[in-house]
Write a structure and sequence with these properties.
alpha/beta, Rossmann fold, 294 residues
């Protein structure tokens, strides 16, 4: 497995490296550490006098030197655990150059730390982790909490190719890693609640919801059975409501260490940020999130 881990010196990127040791066997994996320095924003600044320009150049040089030292220290530490480890300094907008590097390296997994949503540090539309979820060519592990033994996982499934590939990703974890998995199939609310509709339409809606629930139960049971055959303790449940919010709520109730969801590639930025289940989960999850990109 080829793993690309983006670091920035924060505790979140340190947690990301620790998480990798929980999920992967260093013997069968190669690790590439990357750090991105974005200097493009300084190209459009107003013209500076010679003295100010020299000072800016010196500051940018210090920034590059600091980034190089950061990678060097991280590489030395990682080499104690990982046999095949490299470090690379990237230049440009972080999300863009990290995604491009993951594609060039044909990475199987991209790992990045995320501050998530807090009262004082909102996860804005332009955050690196959210943009990577849209641009990455491979599954993305968004680390939001310190690493711990992987005991409980919430897996969101909707029958899509991406959600089944997420199941396959779980199954290929080392045999010593077999957490308890709660497979959740979520029935989204029918668009009838905020408008006036005839009573007969509500009756039809109830009938449709009953059909959807039966299908969701079959799907959750099937996925749970697939995981049990691979040695996992797994159960299937059906929830009703906005899928992202329901998965986040379930993860809190289950005290999950990880949420796993699938996400379609090829969506526009507007489609992703306005309607993505994965985006909602990553923003609000009480734990780390693995987004399987199809």
């Amino acid at each position: 497995m080829k793993i690309l881990c983006a670091i920035d010196g924060s505790r979140y990127s340190q947690w990301a490296l620790a998480w990798l040791r929980r999920l992967c066997s260093p013997d069968g994996c190669s690790l590439l550490l990357v750090h991105a320095v974005d200097m493009t924003q300084f190209k459009t600044l107003p013209k500076l006098d010679q003295k100010s320009r020299s000072a800016l150049v010196k500051v940018l040089e210090f920034s590059l030197e600091g980034a190089a030292r950061l990678l060097e220290v991280a590489e030395v530490k990682a080499a104690k655990t990982w046999g095949d480890v490299r470090a690379k300094l990237l230049r440009g907008h972080p999300a863009k150059v990290i995604a491009r590097s993951a594609k060039r390296e044909r990475a199987d997994l991209l790992v990045i730390g995320s501050r998530g949503v807090t009262e004082f540090q909102p996860m804005l539309l332009g955050s690196v982790s959210r943009k990577l979820l849209m641009q990455a060519p491979c599954p993305v592990l968004v680390v939001k909490k310190p690493a711990s033994t992987l005991k409980r996982v919430v897996l969101g499934t909707d029958g899509s190719i991406e959600s089944w590939e997420a199941v396959a990703w779980l199954r290929q974890l080392p045999e010593k890693i077999r957490p308890a998995v709660t497979v959740a199939s979520v029935i989204p609310p029918l668009p009838l609640e905020s408008i006036r509709v005839p009573a007969r339409a509500l009756a039809v809606g109830d009938q449709v919801e009953g059909v959807l629930r039966r299908e969701a139960q079959k799907l959750a049971a099937r996925v749970a059975g697939t995981l049990r055959k691979a040695g996992f303790s797994a159960k299937g449940i059906v929830l009703s409501g906005p899928p992202g919010a329901e998965l986040v709520k379930l993860a809190g109730c289950e005290r999950a260490n990880l949420i796993v969801v699938g996400s379609r590639s090829g969506r526009s930025a507007h489609e992703y940020f306005m309607g993505s289940v994965a985006d909602t989960v990553v923003k609000h999850a009480p734990c780390s999130v693995l987004v399987y990109r199809g």
